[in-house]
Design brief:
InterPro entries: AAA+_ATPase, AAA_lid_NorR, Homeodomain-like_sf, HTH_Fis, P-loop_NTPase, PAS, PAS-like_dom_sf, PAS_fold. By secondary structure, the protein is of the alpha/beta class. It folds into 3 domains: 116 residues, Beta-Lactamase; 171 residues, 3-Layer(aba) Sandwich (Rossmann fold); 69 residues, Helicase, Ruva Protein, domain 3. It is built from 19 helices and 12 strands. The relative contact order is 0.07.
Length: 469
């Protein structure tokens, strides 16, 4: 063998490698192209019943002929020129698994052969540890499923509005597909409730629903939260690594709330996942496949964001397979009463009160604009109950959203005999019709001018029976 002079640093490196290999949990053997043993780590001689010095004077053929092993994977490599995997029996009766691989020189001849082996007990222990970890993951997943299913029993769908009933009826059918669904609507209209309803009526209802608020995750943690990471990937990482949201949701549904706040880099990574189902944890080269159904939600006009180059067009079309617009609470007067009565009953039970609405208070609830939608209504009812129904403290602060300035004229004539609700509807209908006429009834152009999504415009047109002549 050709010898090389090693400097001090090289010697330190070599010493480090030898010491580390001696701590390897299995056996390592290196032979030359003739089968003569050049190196063994500290564990091999102990298992083979030899000293290290004895092992280094032998060849792999000697190990077999002298009965140390019943056969050799290295000899198999020397015969075939290909890697070998086999079970060996040591003279002590222990069975070991061994893999041997050739190392070729520039001329294409075998220069070295390296063999790794370990006993079956180690593999059994390793498989048991993997099984335990898998059971832990399944346990966590089952616990989450139990909590979700328990919560569903106490959160019925409350709606008396015709639009909402139609939406829920449509979703009962569309939920059974695996197509992506995106929910549009103002903050607080109940997008999370509809996402839960979709999952509960889907073919994945017995699997997990993973809700994610995209706007609540810091940009620097976004990739690790979605795709997970391996041990030691970055400072502060869990020493055991961690699965990401998309991997944890395998087989179930992932609800991406506030999808419009997703940063550009994550938009690209999410698109790739949606197209391939592939996940690569941070710090890993291994591809993992995950099968999830995506339901997204936003209070923004994604089409407008696409035009402004703030949202990827390809991701928009990938998500926008089934767009659903959830109208605000102010456009669902029947739901105002239904939800108010539901929350009144809920908080009366919670705080052991027996508060009721009078006609004036109900009228105020109807007349209010509800910019915070259902979330604001729920909080308002809770405050009403915990103040023991003190309308002077609570509901009197609710007034119509914004008075119209004197210098602003409504489209059409004023009719002061109308209720505020009817006046608002009449104004909205006339205004939309005016913009439609101005845009020659071109839907996208009209939607852009109104600053709404096309699905919103279609809903309004249907509500007010606006049709092109």
């Amino acid at each position: 063998m050709e010898m090389f002079a090693l400097d001090t640093e090289d010697m330190k490196t070599l010493d480090m490698l030898i010491r580390c290999l001696d701590y390897y949990y299995g056996n390592i053997l290196i032979s030359d192209g003739s089968g003569n043993i050049l190196y063994v780590n500290a564990t091999l001689p102990k298992m083979y019943g030899l000293t290290k010095e004895e092992a280094l004077t032998m060849s792999v053929y000697d190990l077999v002929s002298e009965g140390v092993l019943d056969k050799s994977a290295v000899i198999e490599v020397l015969k075939t020129g290909k890697p070998a995997l086999t079970k060996l029996c040591i003279n002590s009766g222990t069975t070991i698994d061994c893999v041997a691989k050739p190392v070729y020189n520039a001329a294409g001849s075998i220069e070295y052969i390296i063999a790794f082996s370990h006993d079956e007990i180690f593999m059994t222990d390793l498989q048991n540890e993997l099984r335990i970890e898998k059971e832990k993951s399944e346990g966590i997943k089952n616990a989450l499923l139990f909590i979700q299913q328990a919560n569903k029993k106490y959160k019925p769908i409350i709606t008396a509005d015709k639009q909402m009933k139609n939406i829920f009826e449509s979703m009962k059918y569309l939920a059974k597909t695996d197509s992506s669904i995106i929910l549009y609507g103002e903050s607080g209209v109940g997008k999370d409730v509809l996402a839960n309803y979709i999952h509960s009526n889907s073919m994945r209802k017995n699997e997990i629903l993973m809700p994610v608020n995209c706007s609540a995750i810091p940009n620097e943690l976004m990739e690790s939260e979605f795709f997970g990471y391996e041990s030691g990937s970055f400072t502060g990482a869990d020493k055991n690594g961690r699965k990401g949201i998309l991997e944890m949701g395998n087989g179930g549904t992932v609800f991406l709330d506030e999808i419009g706040d997703l940063p550009p880099l994550m938009q690209a990574k999410l698109l790739r996942f949606l197209d391939s189902g592939e996940i690569k944890r941070i710090g890993s080269t291994k591809l993992i496949y995950s099968d999830v159904r995506v339901v997204a939600a936003t209070n923004k006009d994604l089409y407008k964001l696409v035009k402004e180059s703030k949202f990827r067009e390809d991701l928009y079309y990938r998500l926008n397979i089934i767009p659903v617009y959830i109208p605000p609470l102010r456009d669902r007067p029947d739901d105002i009463e239904a939800l108010s009565e539901y929350y009144l009953k809920e908080y009366n039970q919670k705080y052991n009160h027996n508060i009721e609405f009078d006609e004036e208070q109900i009228k105020r609830l109807y007349d209010y604009y509800w910019p915070g939608n259902i979330r604001e209504l729920r909080n308002e009812i809770e405050r009403f109950v915990i103040t023991n129904g003190n309308a002077n403290v609570l509901l009197n602060r609710i007034s119509p959203w914004q008075p119209i300035a004197e210098d602003k004229k409504l489209i059409g004539e004023y009719d002061y005999s109308d209720s505020l609700r009817k006046a608002k509807d009449r104004f909205e209908r006339d205004f939309i019709k005016g913009v439609l006429d101005e845009c020659e009834w071109k839907i996208q152009k009209t939607a852009d001018k109104l600053g709404v999504h096309r699905s919103v415009l279609y809903t309004k047109m249907d509500k007010y029976n606006l049709k092109s002549k």
